[in-house]
Predict the structure.
Amino acid sequence: MIKNIVFDMGNVLVAYDGRKVCKHYIKDKKDRKRVFTAIFQSPEWVYLDMGMIPEEQAVDQMCARLPKRLHEAARLCMRDWHLYNMKPIKAMIPVIQDLKARGFKLYICSNASLRLPMCYQELLPEVDSFDGILFSAEEKLLKPQKEIYERLFEKFNIKPEESYFIDDLQLNIDGAAACGMKGYCFADGNVEKLQKALESLNKDS
């Protein structure tokens, strides 16, 4: 019997595109790509999600890979990325409302830097419907490490076999499955297909 639905945040509840803030601040396409790569495809970005590095240090290291003329733009992109790159996926609102009406407990388990606890309430659809939120940087863990799922179960006192995980990356679904939590890969972003999968939960119980 599934009692808990666990959501990833990025590209499940919130649309995420790291190119948007770069497009806002940088006109030249080649420069835009260089800054995007230096920030959003950097090891420092992963370290931020793991809570292993202060943001100021991360920005300094990102800028070190760029010509000096792009440092100011890179710092602006890093300062404001959460304002441009993330938008609520409004199609998920009825999904969340339906799950809540059916009596499921709802949780979030997301790879996210310490920036997110300061702004997630403005980004999440139906934010008050969630019973608990776990951000990777606060735990110094990262999906698909087994430890982050174990921490999720421990923190919210839920059982893996009673929980169902929705993530846009199969690697993270596989990591959850290895810990006993079945799930659904939302890589295609098809809300209708997801809703049908969720409607079938517990029908054979």
